Amino acid sequence: MRPVTRVLAACIGLLLVVGVVGAVTVDDDASAPARTVATSAASTTTAAPTNTTSAPDIGALVHELQGFVEDHRGLKFSQPIKVALLADAAFSARVVELSKQDDAELLRTGAELRALGLLKPGVDLIKARNELLGAAIVGFYDPKTTELVVRGSKVTPLVRTTLAHEITHALQDQTFHIEHPEFKDRDDEVDIAFSAIAEGDALRVEEAYRNTMTRSEQRQEAAEERVAAQRINSKDIPPILSQLLVFPYADGPPLVSALLRSGQGRLDDAFRRPPTTTEQVMHPERFIAGEGPKPVPDPTADAAQIDKGVMGELVLKLLLGTVLPNDQAGRDAAGWGGDRYVAWSDGDRTCVRVAFVMDTPNDEQELRTGLTIWATKQKAATVSRSGPTTLTTCA
């Protein structure tokens, strides 16, 4: 069973269009520079480029970027990188195909998100995901085929920074492996937490490469970003989809920066022993200190169980944020110590029950107050008033 935060875990190695990243605020306390977060994404553009590289020159550019990435990452490639250039339609189809493996899981997750009030009834989550990824991605590294895939036949300044980012993923994969099938058998948050490490690292190298570009190239990249943002119809994208997809890009950089204060070896070690909770990503000091989640027994389902796992601090914050100011939701969720949820079917409804353990009694009271406010806005939700704070909700 997999937690709700893994709804887009297969998307590691993709870069998102600035219109998605820049429009979503996931963690008000994130210390990543706004420019770094905004430019963690890229897409093709209809703007006429002034500085481009033609397709036949891609090999030379990739070779140049490999050297740059090696120098800034302190690691060496063990084999050449395979690169494929695809036209828009073929590229979008490849991105969608890459994510289809999780369709069945996405349907179940959608039902759970609806029960949690984070997804409106009637939203086709698979269709929304396909539209978002098909339009919002300019390049990706596929760890299964060890291939770097790029949209289009011209390499503009925006695509060059994207290549720097994706080549970093290729180096990560050759050194540490970023495809972890064993994560799929776990019901913690290791997938999204590992993505935060990988994306934060790649964003750091991407930003270093951007700083080597001329001011004219940087201006062109910014112009491309503005045009690229227009490709995304944000009205068709459920906020929760963007919020979960953006999380590794927004919260990964501060985590990587915190690890690097202890040297590159500490960052490298995080690839081998990654954080397992969104709490450890959102609060790097807790990961560095080795503070893991508190044990919580699985709550009891009222019918045959269809899923179980960890909701986590991130989803708790997003849930509270639907009824509380963002800063208060963040403070209340920051007291998260651990949780476990179960889900079951009740006729045509999906029900979710989550048991929480907080860091302190005061944190427990704040959570109970916030969840009670949230529950009053739902058709079928209750919050326990004795024992561990337990939320039960159906939709």
What do you see in this structure?
The protein has 395 residues and is of the alpha+beta class. It folds into 2 domains: 4-287, no CATH class; 305-394, no CATH class. The model is unreliable at 18-54 (pLDDT under 50). It contains 16 helices and 11 strands. 49% of the residues lie in helices and 15% in strands. The strands form 3 sheets. A 5-stranded antiparallel beta sheet has the order 7-8-9-11-10. Strands 1-4-5-3 form a 4-stranded mixed beta sheet. A hairpin with a 4-residue loop joins strand 4 (137-142) and strand 5 (147-151). Helix 3 (58-73) crosses helix 7, helix 8 (190-210) crosses helix 10 (239-260) and helix 14 (312-320) runs antiparallel to helix 15 (326-333).
What are the key terms here?
395 residues, alpha+beta, five-stranded antiparallel beta sheet, four-stranded mixed beta sheet, 16 helices, globular
Portion in strands: 5-15%
Oligomerization status of the protein chains: single chain
User: What do the pLDDT scores average to?
Assistant: 84
Q: CA-to-CA gap between the ends?
A: 20 Å
The biggest beta sheet is recorded as: 5 strands, antiparallel
Number of strands: 11
**Strand order within the widest beta sheet:** 7-8-9-11-10
Query: Count the helices. How many?
Result: 16
Inertia-based shape: globular
- Kindly name the structural category: alpha+beta
